Amino acid sequence: MIIPCFDLSRQYDSIKEEVQKSVNDVFESGRFILGKNVEEFEREFSSYIGVKHGIGVGNGTDALHFALVASGVVLNDEVIVPSYTATPSVLAISHAGAKPVFVDIEPDSYCMDTSLVEKAITKKTKAIMPVHLYGHPVDMKAVMEIAEKHSLKVIEDASQAHGTEYRGKKVGCFGDAACFSFYPTKNLGCFGDGGMVVTNNEKTENSIRLMRNMGQDGKVYHSLSIGFNSRLDEIQAAILKVKLARLDQMNNSRRENAKIYNDILGDSVVTPEEKEYAKHIYHLYVIRTKNRDNVRDFLSKNSVMTGIHYSIPVHLQKAYMKIGPGKGKLPVTEKYVDEIISLPMFPEITGDEIEKVSELVKKVVKS
Ligand SMILES: *Cc1c(COP(=O)(O)O)cnc(C)c1O
């Protein structure tokens, strides 16, 4: 029996009837774009995060792009972002015409090292993009203090952090805007592409409502701004409503699973840390070990699938090599990409499976 890195079919079994009914209701309504499901889900999700407005868009990358533009980021501005992230965090900065300025990560949380942010600020800096990577929060108090001191905008990339908490509050409520992806494998995922921007700022909200819908306000065929076509659709919103009701329970299962891994793995590898200010939701369960490739090979031979998130830091990818800072400048990032392994992690993985994976890891690292 293969233990997959991620298994969506197990989850579908438990929500099948409800999802099929809600999708069928959309089919019968004949309304597929910007209808009541999107409106309701925008309200439900933004209130879950604790923010006034939610704007459903086509995907997480567009959410970030729109949030940057709506926050005033323009051509040749600089945005400070970790290189140790999913590439779309950075692509969105480029889409806005701005230049990503990369900072290294903290050794323990895999998130942006906030002590490096001030040194990266120049006259051109307009915004900071903290990424709550793997489901662990960035130290938002530090980020917000720097932003305030230097009058910078903060756009949170919360694509891996639906329900992550920082000092008891959900991430996504701290910045000028925050962005979520509902890509299928995220902690809250739809059955295709989807995304959302949440913000307390009404101007940002209105600007993104136009941007996602060709610059059009409501049903009038009149573009008020040069917008895009990037909307969350009714079918995805209907599915997301069903899954949002189970999000906390699914995140808690992930936390319990992480605890089982931590207990069995002990010191055999470097297990994930949860900072004192954090509630981690384990979008990914990432360990570090020497001889990473051997460990992955051995697991694969024993039917355990693993992943690497991510194998090439953004600043060393072909698309970004030219803009610097070049090899050697982000030492933690560059060291960790050769040591990380994402072990199987999803709400429905069983204790027996976690035990099997952990025992295999312990066996191979000892040999
Ligand atoms: C998934 C993800 C995105 C992009 O989301 P899409 O919906 O795939 O466009 C952006 N940032 C991070 C950190 C992500 O994990």
Give the helix/strand layout.
Layout: H1 8-29, H2 36-49, E1 53-57, H3 60-70, E2 78-82, H4 87-95, E3 99-103, E4 125-128, H5 140-150, E5 153-157, E6 165-166, E7 169-170, E8 177-181, E9 195-199, H6 202-211, H7 234-244, H8 247-265, E10 278-279, E11 285-288, H9 292-301, H10 331-336, E12 340-343, H11 351-366
Helix pairs in contact: 1-7, 2-7, 3-4, 8-11, 9-11
Pyridoxal-5'-phosphate (PLP) binds at residues 59-61, 85-86, 88-89, 131, 157, 159-160, 181, 183, 193, 195.
Top CATH class of the largest domain: Alpha Beta
Please report the number of helical segments.
11
The tally of domains stands at: 2
Which ions and ligands are bound to the chains?
A: pyridoxal-5'-phosphate
User: What would CATH call the homologous superfamily of the largest domain?
Assistant: Type I PLP-dependent aspartate aminotransferase-like (Major domain)
- What's the total number of strands? 12
The rough form would be described as globular
Low-confidence stretches: none
Q: What percent of residues are in strands? A: 5-15%
